[in-house]
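From: lab user (bench 3)
To: helpdesk
Subject: output format question, protein + uracil

Hello, I'm new to running complex predictions and I'm not sure whether the block I got back is the full result or only part of it. Here's what I submitted:
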Amino acid sequence: MSALTDLYPQIQACRRCEIGYSRTKAVPGEGSEHAEIMFIGEAPGWHEDQQGRPFVGPAGQFLDQLIASIGLKREQVYIANVVKCRPPNNREPLPTEIQNCKSWLDEQIKLVHPKMIVTLGRFSMEKYFPGKTISKIHGTAKREGDIIYFAMYHPAAALHQGNLRKDIEADMLKIPRVLAEAAPAVQEPEKPAEQQKQLNLF
Ligand code: URA
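Helpdesk reply: Thanks, we reran it on our side. This is the complete output you should expect:
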C-alpha cells in the first residue's frame, strides 16, 4: 500500500453525492505512481462502473491506442477522472459532483506529481483552462509551476464525430515534444518564474 493506493478504499467508501449511492463501483483511477503523464477524463461510463477501472470501454480502447502511439503503455501513465462515480444514464457530471470530488483528484495529482496533465474533454479542461473552448485550445499547452497542462478532446468524441479522430491522434503525437521542450526550461532557475508561467508551448 502507498499513500496513493490508500486513497482508493476511501474513494470507494465516499458518499458525498447521490451518485455515490447509484453507482456499481467507484472508479478511483489507476496507473504508475511515478507517471510523468497524467490523463484526466470526465466520469466513469457503464463499463468503468461495472469494473471499477477508468477508461475500459470503447473510449478507453481508443485511449490505449493513443497512448501506444507515443510509445507508452497504460501502466506507465496515470489515468483518473474528474468525477469518480458514474452519473446515471451517462448524463454530464453536475457542478456539485465535480466540487465534491475535487479533493480526491487534487490529492491524486499531489501524490503522483506528474510532469504533464493531459485534460480529456471539457470537464477536465475547465479545471485548468477555465473559460476556454475546446475546439480552440485542443493541442495546446501551458505551464503553471512545474506542471505542463495539455488540452485534448475526449477520446469518446472520435467515436461520435469521426472527423475529430485525426485531430485527437495529431494532438497526442505532440505530447513527447511538449514534454521534451518544456523539460530544460523547468531546469533553468535563472528564468524568471513569471516568464515561465506565461510560456505557451503551442
Ligand atoms: N469516459 C471518461 O471520461 N472516463 C472514463 O473513465 C471512461 C469514459
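A quick orientation on your result: The two ends are 39 Å apart (CA to CA). Let us know if anything else is unclear.
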